[in-house]
C-alpha cells in the first residue's frame, strides 16, 4: 500500500456517505473513459436519498467532464470533497474548460490516485471520495443539466472524517470544507454545535 | 411598515438569490393553502439554475408541508435561510410532524410574518426568504421526492446579506448559516476567503 493511502479508509455507504455531503460543500466531480479524464468543481451537488445514498449534481453542457460521463458505458463518476488546502485546485478546475486547454488537469495542479487499481481518478488532497453510478434520467439531464448518481463506494481521510463524524477542530483549518459563493469568494465550514 | 421589516429588503432575483443558496446551508420550507400552514427543515436543498434562479428541494412524503404544497393551486412555497439564532426552531420544525402534533408550529416556537400582505408564511428571525413556484415534474416528485421551484421573489435581512454579499463577520455568530450533519449535530459557516 502506498504511503499516501495510510489514512484513506473505505466508509459505510449509507449513514457515512450521507453525512459527507450534508454540509452542502462545494465538490469536484471527475470521470474517465480510460482515454480521457476530466474533473470540474461544482457548487450544486446535494444528497437525494439514503440507504442507498443517492445524490444530484448539476453539470453544465460546456464541460468535458459531462461529455465523458455521458459517453462512458458504466456511467461512473467520482464526487470528491476538497478542503481549504485543495481549494486553489478545485477553483481552477471550475474555471478552466478542457475544451479550451487540453492540458487543463496539469495546469490546474490536479493529481490523481487510484486506491483500488480500477482506473478511477481520485483527486489527491481531498477529504473524501464517493464513487457513483449514473441513474439515467434523460429528461432531467437534458432539460435541467441535472444528474442523479447512486453511491457504490466511498472513502475518506480518517484525519478529518472517521466514517461517522467530522473532526475539523482536531484536523485544523486546512481540512475545512469549502462553500463557494461566486467570483473566487468562498467560506470555509466553521464551528460545530449540538442541539 | 412594521419595525420588524426595517432591515428586510427585496433582493435581485438572479445573482443575489443564487448566492443565498450557494453555501449549501440547511433551509426551512413553508407552505400554506390559506387554511393550513406548515414548515419543515430540509438539509437537501440546492441551486439548479440561474437567470431565473431555480432550485431543488427533497421533501419526504411523511411531511404535511409537502401535502399542502402539492394540493395548493399556485404551487407556492417559501425557502428561508435560518441561522445559529433560529437553529433550535429549524431543528424542531424538522423533528416534529404536523400529522402527529396539530400545534406543531406553536410548539416549535415558529413565528411568521407577511411582508407584502399576500398571506405568505415567512419564518421570523431568518437571514433570507425565497418565494418559489413549483415547476411540476410529477415523475421526480413521485420517484425521488424531488421538487423543482423557480424563484419569484426574494428578501434578505440587510444586517447579514446586502443583496450581493454575505456579511457574517460584521453580523456576528448568531447570523451564521447552519449546516446539518445528523442527530442534532450542526456546523455553522466559518471564515470567508478569496482565491
Tell me about this structure.
The structure is a homodimer. The longest helix of chain A has 9 residues, at about 85-95. The N and C termini of chain A lie far apart (about 40 Å). The first copy, chain A, has helices at about 15-20, 65-70, 85-95, 105, 140-145, 170; strands at about 10, 25-30, 35-40, 45-50, 55-60, 75-80, 110-115, 120-125, 130-135, 145-155, 180, 185-195. In chain A, about 20% of the residues lie in helices and about 35% in strands. Chain A is globular, with a radius of gyration of 16 Å. In chain A, strand 7 and strand 8 (about 120-125) form a beta hairpin. In chain A, the strands form 3 sheets. In chain A, strands 1, 2, 3, 4, 5, 6, 9 and 10 form an 8-stranded antiparallel sheet that branches. With about 200 residues, chain A is of the alpha+beta class. Chain A has one domain (about 5-180): Roll (Pnp Oxidase, Chain A), CATH 2.30.110.10. At the A-B interface, helix 1, strand 4, strand 5, helix 3 and helix 5 of A face helix 1, strand 4, strand 5, helix 3 and helix 5 of B.
Structure, briefly:
The first copy, chain A, is α+β, with helices and mostly antiparallel strands and 195 residues long. Chain A contains 6 helices and 12 strands. At the A-B interface, α1, β4, β5, α3 and α5 of A face α1, β4, β5, α3 and α5 of B.
Record keyword descriptors for this entry.
homodimer, Pnp Oxidase, Chain A, oxidoreductase activity (chains A, B), Flavin reductase family protein (chains A, B), 8-stranded antiparallel β-sheet, 6 helices, 195 residues, 36% strand
